[in-house]
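Private note to self, pasted from the team thread so I don't lose it. Backbone tokens:
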């Protein structure tokens, strides 16, 4: 077999690895069945689907594509750092500042990873995602998480 597409090879390996990790972690929880799902059911299904998708993409790397594939671009370490940093920032801000502060701050911070978006787009996206998340999780699903900082409640 001849490798035709390096991007598909790397993507397939990454997807397969994550799917396998989720499957292994899900084994620590009871699976249950489709009628009475246990805590490990959903992670196991997602892990199996991701592993299957990874194997499919991995197989496509050998059967499809151009042998003279363009070179892989370098990793955008700044963007990666901003995205991971925004998740960590959200986790630290949520208990002390509430969702109303933590979500917009982390969304603006993560949006800085893309130099292609304007400030108008960033602020619009932040407002829509914050409002949508509150509507879905707080109002629709009635999940309890701190909206306001503890000093204001």
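Design output:
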């Amino acid at each position: 077999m001849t490798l035709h597409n390096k991007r598909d090879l790397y993507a397939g390996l990454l997807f397969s690895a994550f799917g396998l990790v989720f499957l292994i972690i899900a084994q620590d929880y009871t699976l249950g069945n489709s009628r009475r799902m246990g805590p490990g059911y959903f992670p196991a299904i997602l892990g199996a689907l991701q592993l299957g998708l990874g194997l499919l993409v991995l197989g496509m790397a050998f059967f499809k594509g151009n042998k003279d594939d363009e070179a892989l671009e370098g990793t955008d370490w700044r963007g990666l750092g901003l995205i991971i940093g925004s998740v960590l920032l959200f986790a630290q801000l949520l208990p002390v500042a509430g969702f109303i502060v933590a979500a917009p701050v982390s969304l603006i911070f993560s949006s800085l990873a893309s130099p292609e978006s304007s400030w108008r787009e960033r602020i619009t996206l932040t407002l829509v995602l914050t409002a949508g998340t509150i509507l879905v999780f707080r109002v629709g699903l009635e999940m309890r998480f701190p909206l306001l900082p503890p000093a204001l409640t």
